[in-house]
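Memo to structure team: turn this sequence into structure tokens by end of day. - J.P.
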Amino acid sequence: MIDATPQTQDQINHLAEIDWSTARLSATMPGSRPNRLPVVHNRQQALAVAFSDDLIAEAFWAKVDRSGGSFSWWPWKGATPDGYGHHSLKFTGGYRLALNAHKFAYEMVNGPCQAPALDHLCRNRSCCNPRHLDPVTQQINTLRGVSPAAANAQKTHCKKGHPLEGENVILVQTKAKLPSRKCRTCTNATYAAYRARRALEKEAGR
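Reply from structure team:
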């Protein structure tokens, strides 16, 4: 979990205790919210408004299920087409701001996130609990997941039981430019078998 400062912990606990059932959800309905929000011309301006508007915050948190308490999953109740929560705001003039729900939740509590990725430590993509989000590099985020690269990083031994550590490790890069490991013992055995096979083929060809 995130090693949050006491101030951040207080903010999160406060959010968990608030009863958002009376939030002004009508503010997000067509014809209501767009007419009230100002005209913006780019994402930076739109985000500045989003982070400073209390009504936007109320409408956002009303779409987050915090019924389990401050340490539980806070699943997004809106759209999750790829497993992650998606939220959008339409401004006067037609500009639409698309947001990742979990990132918006994290930044409302902790301020701007400069890290390339936010890792869901709880492994629930729809979760918006800032306690469960860890700012990391894209590489670390990938390796913590369930991709082939992540599975390779978590191995302690190769398929034949050789330890993947110390001098027995050969570091390589995948096609996605991610670090990977190969067993030196198995690699040397493969090359030795290839050389022996080639020698027999040459001998047979004489």
